[in-house]
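This section describes the prediction task in plain terms. A model, or a person checking by hand, is given the sequence of a single protein chain and must write out its three-dimensional structure as a string of tokens. No templates, partner chains or ligands are provided. The sample shown here is typical of the held-out split.
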Amino acid sequence: MVTNDKGAVELKHSVIKGLAKLLWEDNLNEETKEQLAMEISPGPRPTWRCCVYKEREILKWRIRLSCGEDANPYATEPNPNPIQVIDPACQECPLAAYSVTDNCRLCLGKACQNSCHFGAITMGETRAHIDPNKCKECGMCAQACPYGAIAHLVRPCRKPCPVNAIGYDENGICVIDEKKCIRCGQCIHSCPFGAIASKIDVLDIIRDIKAGKEVYAMCAPAIEGQFGKDITMGSVRAALKKIGFTDMVEVGLGGDMTAAYESAEWSEARKEGKKMTTSCCPAFINMLRKHFPQQFKENMSDIVSPMCAISRYLKVTHPGCKTVFIGPCIAKKSEAHEMGIKDNADYVLTFGEMTTLLSSKDVELEPVTDKYQEASIWGKGFAASGGVANAVMECMRERGEDTTGIKLRAAAGGKACQAALTLLKVGKLPEDFIEGMVCDGGCVGGPSKHKTELEIKQARQTLLDEADDRKVLKNLENYPMDKFSMERGPMADCTVAAK
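The expected answer:
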């Protein structure tokens, strides 16, 4: 996995794997959870923090998240966010955003002190000093210093957050602002201490498999290329069936479904002169809902995401089944568990959580000869920036519509999405439609990607070149699209037709 927190990721996966093995063996209880923590941090000397007691406290919080529970065992109120802070792990970052370096000459001009309006800067024996309790982080001192001796230290969890949702309490512990957080998960792998993590559905999936339920995996198109050019959709399907999944369906097929229905919606909006946004990226939806509520109400597509489309398809064709989305996305956990969209995925796994689940039964991803494809190349293209818009345009062309003159804006990355939505809000967006993906490069650049974007792109292109050239609308004739709704409302509301 490509992260800045390799050790933290390895710790997370050791916890998940340990718990999963215990559950497979019908031996998971409070006592064995404690034993697992002792095995990972045996003592008497610490291996990754200051003392074994802190290590074991961190493990207690991690075990709770891995069991699908809130991390904080001492909290009195439930935490609605699937992304949570492991407080005891968040204690080593500097409290001050601005600090004076050795470049300070303790000059006579004292430009830094004179520029500060809050009395936060004093002169020491060898350098200036900034009082973090008085500093308002305005940055005037850094701008004023003629030597560039004042450094701006942005804590790593805060740096990638596109909506400024990361703050800190009086002890410097990270706090996630629920009113701002869009569940994108960019903060998780940016923390080198692994102090931010998400709830995990692995154990619930194992319980359903052991209970004999039909459990279907739904693999995001972004999985192609994540494990090299030799690991195909068929490889993933075979591995998941080995550990008890009933079967697997590629979510690229859901991309075909979403593109077909969104294209009909876009066509109507175009006639009315109305601008639209896509609805596939849950982090983008959360950005709309929380930061651009009027545009969420007026401009967002009413069509469900590919994940939800496949879940609804499976629940209609296999009543009572459980559906598990597997992808690079943290925000999909929000879509499945928070958004309240009927018959959406029951569980969500990241790629890393999937491989750990496989590992708990000693199963690995291996090349297979069986070719598996249910999606068109356009549905598979949903994984990359521009893929949704391209698929929607393809559906319009397949219906015989003239797409000349349609202007599309593919916004990939948090800042690009904010810029596009701001223009939409003030009525200055030149394009007709916005494709919004909060991760750079689209889903292939999600927080749980397993290789660099270049490596993924190269391997992915090899796999895509092997796919057939079936048409989107023709492909959907093989599926019971009249049996379930593609709108965000109840299943019965089949009011949008892919004709």
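For orientation: Residues 218 and 325 are 5 Å apart (CA to CA).
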